[in-house]
Amino acid sequence: MLPAETTTDHDATGSEQVADFGGLEIRWDSRVLRPRPWTTAQSHWIAALADGGAPGPILELCCGAGQIGLLAASLTGRDLVQVDRDPVAADYARRNATLAGVAADVRVGSLADALEPGELFGLAILDPPWVPSADVPNFPEDPVGAIDGGLDGSDQLLLGLGVALRHLAPGGYLVVQVGSHEQVSIVERLVDGIQGGSSGWRVLEVRDYLPGGLLVAIGDQR
Fold first, then answer.
1. Residue 206 structural domain
2. How many domains does the chain have?
3. Distances (CA, A) of 60 to 24, 49, 123, 152
4. DSSP structure class, residue 7
5. Is there a domain that residue 5 lies in?
6. Measured between alpha carbons, how far is 42 from 70 in angstroms, rounded to an integer?
7. Binning pLDDT at 50, 70 and 90, where does residue 46 land?
8. Which of 53, 84, 135, 208 is the 20 to 30 Å CA partner of 128?
């Protein structure tokens, strides 16, 4: 999840803060990204898709302090696997899962290495860093590693899409967070190009929450 809203209570000292996120109390500090209230929409959307989706746990990639996946798991009753490359964020995700009463397996590592080849998930959430590198200085309160998405903001987006779709069970759903309509187009082109468009994965809907961001739902249309 990424910068989108002006913050007024961000603590630059690293002291622990508590945010209300859809009824969950989420712990975080200035070393991780502040929970954005608008991103509860991502949790609610994936939860709404769960009834028609494949069985199995939820996967959340680039989980940060864990709030989006934790709210989705709370709404669906499904187990949760969360991945983040930042050990501080992963520690908060574990703590927040315990406080929320959610069964979560939180893993520290790169997106490419954190999952076993045969692992499949019924639902997936992807919250990659999506800020273009040149724009990162515009968000001085946010940790650089949590928001810097490379030249056009799509570095982790492209990697995360590939990982998520490889581990999404047939009939599953993925909801991706991006920062611009240009990045929506990147998602659409990648999904359409997988296996020459014969994979069955399709962009189903795009929802606009700008200036916060956009959400893209992907599903299996075979």
1. 17-220
2. 1
3. 17, 15, 9, 23
4. -
5. no
6. 11
7. very high
8. 53
